[in-house]
Amino acid sequence: MINFKAKELSNMKKIKYFAAILLLITLVSCGSFTVHQKRLITSAAANKPMRVFLITNKQDSILLRKKSTRIKTNSKIAKVLAQRLYATVRDSLSMGVGIAAPQVGILKNMICVQRFDKENFPFEIYLNPIITKYSLKKRPCPEGCLSIPNVSAITKNRAFTISIEYDTLKDEHKKEVVSDFTSVIFQHEIDHLNGILFIDHLKKDVSDAAKK
Q1: Which of 209, 78, 77, 116 is closest to 155 using CA atoms?
Q2: Per-residue pLDDT tens for 117-134?
Q3: pTM for the whole thing?
């Protein structure tokens, strides 16, 4: 039988109290935007593109290598970010096929992907996307990145088919299987959410080739 003294019990209650407060703060703040992020997102109209962060800029590069955090699906600011992401990827100076929130300085789990596997190739927004399964079959693919100017190369270790899960701005949770070029775009953009750039895969390709 364990016999606690009154003082020890009092300290344990204090620890439990502060732990509960900390948990509450964490749950409330989870998925929310910082004041700086909100200011950045609302610095211009929703249909205006944002500045693309570049690996050639030291401060930009530091941010691009950080992991993003979850995002609330029912947040008004998230909807504005989605509009600005779309405006950025469709900007004449960019014209990409996908973009992730970290590329505009927002470390949140949101990506915009052009669906070449759908009619009219629409751009769609995905929140908190994760890849749950990779096919053994690979899809060598020429890749470039809005954050890495004037660089393109063929990656060889992208999965041809992936299974993904994600949330939508309508607070829905969905699962999907994506293949071919669109699958590569998803892998590229989800990598951004984990601080990974496509050039990292080129290094892995060289390493794998050397082992053979």
Answers
A1: 209
A2: 999 999 999 999 999 999
A3: 0.82
Residues 129 and 163 sit within 8 Å (Cβ to Cβ): no
Helix (H) or strand (E) holding 132: strand 123-134
| DSSP β-ladder status, 161-167 and 148-155 | unpaired
What six digits make up the tokens of 108?
Answer: 């949140």
Across 177-194, b (16+ Cβ under 10 Å) vs e yields ebeebbbbbbbbbbbbbe
**Could you say which of 8, 143, 165, 189 is catalytic?**
189
CA–chain centroid gap for 210, Å, is 31
Q: Annotated catalytic, 119?
A: no
For residue 54 the two structure tokens come to: 């570049």
Beta bridge partners of 193: none
Give the residue carrying structure tokens 């962060």: 53
Domains in the chain, please, with CATH? 43-211 (3.90.45.10)
